[in-house]
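hi! just following up on the protien thing from before. the input was this:
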Amino acid sequence: MKKEEIIPNTIYFTTNFETLIEVIKKLDEVKNNDLPKEDFVKRLTAYITQGSGMVLVSFNEKKELNGCVVISRHLDKKGYFLWLDFRWIDDNYKELMNKFYNEVIGLCKEWGIERIQGRANRCFRVVEKYYGAYEIGRIFELKVKEAVMKNGYKK
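and the predicted 3d structure came back as:
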């Protein structure tokens, strides 16, 4: 992915080192983040080298990172599930929430994954209301079959 070929607000899969560094730096911008940067870097490295996870990114008109989602595939007693390790979207690009959501749901359907899980330390009620996720501890889960594609950001 060359910066000059980037289409603004389009989601890309990346393993580009400079872009991954930008994603890692976004940890510092997330309020109330309790994900240690060292652990995140280790996970990210394992996901990319083992093919068990991926980094999705988007850029604004100036070719600056304006959104990212790090996902990984895991197996438990119920089968495969997708874990949302990290997500960040620039506050000026709220419409990207739906684009990333739709991309993740589409990947799950393509891979035959029926569940999505992730942690939420804040705004849990928004995740529950907007996406139809439900709380199991402080981890949310969304049934892919019941997921609805979103057309616009609604608060």
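The chain has four helices and seven strands.
The radius of gyration is 15 Å.
cheers
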